[in-house]
TrEMBL record:
It comes from the Bacteria. Pfam families: Esterase_PHB (PF10503). The keyword Cytoplasm does not apply. The keyword Transferase does not apply. This is Poly(3-hydroxybutyrate) depolymerase. It comes from Zoogloea dura. GO terms for cellular component: extracellular region. GO terms for molecular function: hydrolase activity. Keywords: Hydrolase, Signal.
Amino acid sequence: MARRKSPLLTAFSRLARSSMRQGARISRAAGRQGVAAGERFADSARHVLSGVMTPAGAPGPLTGGSWSEGRWGLGPMAMRHYRLFIPAGATARKPIPLLLLLHGCAQDSAAFAASTRCASLARDKGFAVLMPEQAREANPQRCWNWFGSPLQIGLEAKILMSIVDHVQAAHPRLRGPLFALGLSAGGAMALTLGLQFPARFGAVGSHSGAAPFSAGTALQAGQSMRGRRSPDAEAIAKHLEGRAPPPLLLIHGERDRVVDAGNARAAAMLWLDLQPEGQAIVERTGRVQRGKRHAVTRTDWLAGRQLRVRLLEVAGMGHAWSGGAAGQAFSDPAGPDALRLAWQFFALPRERGRSRTV
């Protein structure tokens, strides 16, 4: 009699095989946008070995908080390295929020920490930052596997949530509200987490990410990134079983040539379709520009007084983190500070379904 394989081992095997094909397609597209910054590192052995476009050293000491590192996952075949920043003064008696921050393709947690300068804002605003790192064994280009079969996507999501659970168990002071935000593939994965585990997140956000649950193959992923596929709303609604997804923030450059800006609109429409029936949705739009930074068109969708979706479209920006540090790939210093804008949204009071806009 043939021995039956474990469903979990089968899922790991499929994920590994598909990631080789999927990651190459995404990396080629992403590389075209990051090549200018990456050329300076062409001779760097660390770049070649790490799969990171612009490598950065480990985050340095910061007054008012501390970095730590760890490794966790679902078992020997699904372990991930992570970095964790905790601001000073956090106690178990008054838990602080935890932001799950997911890097994009050709990045790792150190490079993404350098680009976003997340520790400084976390220290000033009083929240912790958890930055898992995709393994090259899971995806050669370090992309989070945001598309594939439901089993593959679900496995990636469970690995990330296992890290969240591990960190919160080890640090009770981090059991405040949980949020997720990511760039590109990380953004698509953050929205996937919000749909897979809606009760766990206070809000989720995507910066320059593809619409979640819009592709099952590498070919379809390329189509999704070009704005030619839509999310499977029916399947998502079935999974949610009448539950509303968490509030959503979307940030996208209007000139993004890697992930078409239409993905942000598609994700917004998906979220609005998933709202409970009978809710009247009000749309408000405005345009803001401060100093010489890129202008931003902000569109809010509200149900009553509750802000459900916010879309920030950044004029003149490509596939890059808005307001990111100079010298890092996928980083545009001329844009408004994306992480600060995200935290403004995440920190909105939502008790008893009430919210205010900023």
